[in-house]
């Protein structure tokens, strides 16, 4: 064979090898099933595991705004790791999740990435089916769907079957229609991640036995007002709180049930927090222990209010409006619920409307400003305006 023939054969052979390499090479992504050292001639077309990690860290920090420590914490042991995903895959999955949940900004995306990184590491069609199921089953619009997953990102890995079981149990046991069920879940979406047999059912059974003076319909209303009551531990939370309330306010079972029925949300606070607020109310309003008990039983929702940003400022509002501290104290003591109304959304705007209408501002007027519903307030204000020529200057 001549030299030229040998040279031609060599060129053809090399060309064939490179052609095969180009046909078989995937895009520049990590292949974790084959972590071997590649031949230098083909290294250009592969990204090593370290290169993928570096690329994903760069994406998380530059595009999503995660700090170095936050990125480092994503390297979890025993779970799929999003940092080792093939180059470009993480960004594709984040983009899909962003579009499906209509996430609006980086902080919303970061929240899900930080709380459920392993889900993005093994994203499957099941997640799309799960999101579709929840949106259809609960008749959620896009805003409600997004809010649900942002408030409870741990729902992402929950199975559709388990969530369906929980929804069916809640609807049957609490006798909820579709609208009530949706409202309950939107208030406490993490309820969908609770086990019926291990958490929800035993807790509801205990509540019904402990508050035995309340019927099933009333218990259902309590849970609808505060779904989180089903998440509270019985021995460490609910039982000691009920015992403390009965001892502190000298309540029998019937009075305890009525107190919880009136405003169950205060059960989400600690006993220590209750004690601080009770001390402030007793001292600020100069109440005896007996007066304090009557005061709280009339409006237990006051225990939900913050002292500095709610109670103190609201009391000052009534004092300033009346110009008489003693009269304001007497008004609030007789009507405890007046301390629980919103200053910015109700009290201040209505007081201004009252002044603009030339209405006499006294204790009775301030009580109406606080306690009238929106519809009744509008009717009362309109009545005064329409009859001012007759000398009417007080709210009906």
Your description of this structure?
The chain contains 21 helices and no strands. The chain has helices at residues 3-24, 49-62, 68-73, 89-101, 106-115, 117-121, 125-137, 142-151, 160-173, 178-187, 196-210, 216-225, 234-249, 253-262, 271-284, 289-298, 307-322, 325-334, 343-356, 363-371, 374-386. Residues 17-45 have low confidence and may be disordered.
Tell me briefly what this model is.
The chain has 396 residues and is mostly helical.
How far apart the termini lie comes to: 118 Å
Q: What is the H/E string?
A: HHHHHHHHHHHHHHHHHHHHH
Strand content: under 5%
Low-pLDDT stretches: 17-45
Mean pLDDT: 85
Helix content: 55-70%
Radius of gyration, Cα only, in angstroms?
32 Å
Give a count of the beta strands, DSSP E runs of length 2 or more: 0
- Annotation field: number of helices: 21
Main β-sheet: number of strands, strand sense, barrel status?
none
Please tell me what the overall shape is. Answer: globular
